[in-house]
Task: structure prediction
Amino acid sequence: MSIPNVRSLVSGLQPAAVWSHFATLCEIPRASKAEAPLREALLAWAQARGLVCVVDDAGNLIVRKPATVGREHSPGVVLQAHLDMVCQKNAVSSHDFSRDPIRPCLRDGWLVAEETTLGADNGIGVALILAALEDDSFAHGPLEALFTVDEEAGMGGARGLQSGLLQGSLMLNLDTEAWGEFYLGCAGGLDVNVQRQGQSEPLPATWQGWQISLTGLRGGHSGVDIHQERGNAIKLLVRVLCDLQRQYPMRLVSLLGGSARNALPREAVAVVALPAAVIEQLPNILLAQQQALRQELLGVDEGLSLAGEACPVERVMAQAEQAVWLASLHAAPHGVRRMSRRLPGVVETSNNLGMVDLHPNGGACNFMVRSLLDQGGQALADEIVSLFALSGTLAEKSGAYPGWAPNPDSRLLTVCQSVFQREFGVASTVQVIHAGLECGIIGAKYPGLDIVSFGPTIQGAHAPGESVEIVSVERCWHLLKAILAEL
Result:
């Protein structure tokens, strides 16, 4: 069965301009650090409409649209979203994020990418801004569109944004994922990168290689979904390997899991070597482990699957190196460390063991720490560094970025809430999100910038199956125009 291209798929959806722009984003690959083709396409689009454009040294694109007649003295508004997307796919997918377009489908009022991420995070925000730049049907003050790069892989675009470049005094960030909520604060974060060199050894005589795959987990956003207690494929497979080495002679060859620092790992694969007699028992051992883990994750991630198959092996990890890696990864923290006492129901500090790549000669792994309190994130990161220091393993903190402190006196928030109540007849809510937004970094470069964030309803961001609610996109477009006209 042929899959329709995204442009024909969304041709009947409203608002047409927003969905047309989103189709363009689906057609042009836009992995983190590879946004240049998309940025150049948007630059050409804006210049063809006579809009003033700037590409800064970090690769961010700024597009300026003049105020409509009579609104020249209204406060300038920055509309901000990031161009890149998290590139995740199921193991069975042949999708190549460097060249293939995203191919979603429509299902029960949602646009869904079944085998890959959709890129609604933050493609819908970008599409809303592009639609606002080309729409001359409503009055507004001076507009600036700030399209940042490299958000998902370290917020490089926001970090590199120059002070004094933006002219507006208000900013609407369009990178949150729950319709009806205005966000006024977010977590900061940092990475802990671990590396260790090792020494390989020959495969023991008569031993055989076996690949063990743990798949079927839901994954998700390491900030938004961290409190859901979904399975972490790396942590779970490490548990399986630790059980194996306690009961049988086993040598680790490799361990590969996760593909994005800010996504909950859905899949992990290990290659081990075992005596032939143990290999014969392994299918039953894995089946028992699968049943136990499914019971443990009942109602959360019971789709977990453990499978094994023979594979060729020549070298194995040295015994001492295997002990260090498995013990360290087993002991390493993952998940919610502390819930906020000031903001009930909001995660304060968490950590995601997002990626691991071990081989006979060494390996590496990455932890992404988030916290509403900068000192809380630093303390948890220091614990991880200390854990690996016990074995002489190099672990370094990097990429720290500040949280976005809430401003309860925000004039922009007051306007947003008033417009929402007027246009939709119900009250909005105000939230602080545990995920990282660029607002804190941009706000630090532009003191006094009044910032509010909102967006449509997106589910499953950072994981295959990501979806966006179609009606919420239409409501966001209506709200955006109404806020800009009010300001």
In short: The chain has two domains: 6-187+403-486, 190-401. The first helix runs from residue 6 to 9.
